Amino acid sequence: MSTKQKLIQLLAALGLIFSSLLRINFNINPNFEFQQIWLRVLPFPIFDYADQSHDLYLSSTIIGYLFYVLSGFIMLKEIKTDRLLFPLISGFLILSSYAIYVETTSILQDMHSVYKGQYMRIGPTLFIIFLWVYSKFQKMIVNRIYTF
Asked: pLDDT (tens digit, 9 = 90+) per residue, 11-35?
């Protein structure tokens, strides 16, 4: 296994940890205020979205989504010309980027005192999609080694 493959796996594991299993809750406005550290053994729910909620604090899930984007870009760099994997990894990157957009919007809304508790928790879903895409990526790497 190459160092790039190990790096991709490490970044995806960190993405799962920081987006689903370990979460730091905080508020920014008017000052930075630490709320709690949230730790779970199982990453449930798989997908969760709320336009408004009673939880008026931000979370550190954006860090996990950034790890997913980094792993996706490393894979994308390796398979620029593959007709199957390029759209799959591009879709994974678009979904991860949208999650970052939602979290960034929440942070900006909290800075302007209009945050209503919206969030998007898709860390486990991104990890499942990553595993599927990574298995296809592994098969492509093995086939590329033995073809001339």
From this structure: 999 999 998 888 888 888 788 888 8
Residue 42's contacts (CB-CB under 8 Å, 6 or more residues apart) are none
Between the two ends of the chain, the Cα-to-Cα distance in Å is 20
Residues 26/34, Cβ–Cβ less than 8 Å:
yes
| Cα 66 to chain centroid, rounded | 6
Q: Which two tokens stand for residue 65?
A: 């989504």
H or E element: which one contains 22? strand 22-27
SS3 state of residue 146: helix
Q: Where are the alpha helices (DSSP H) in 1-148?
A: 3-16, 61-78, 85-111, 123-146
pTM, full prediction: 0.85
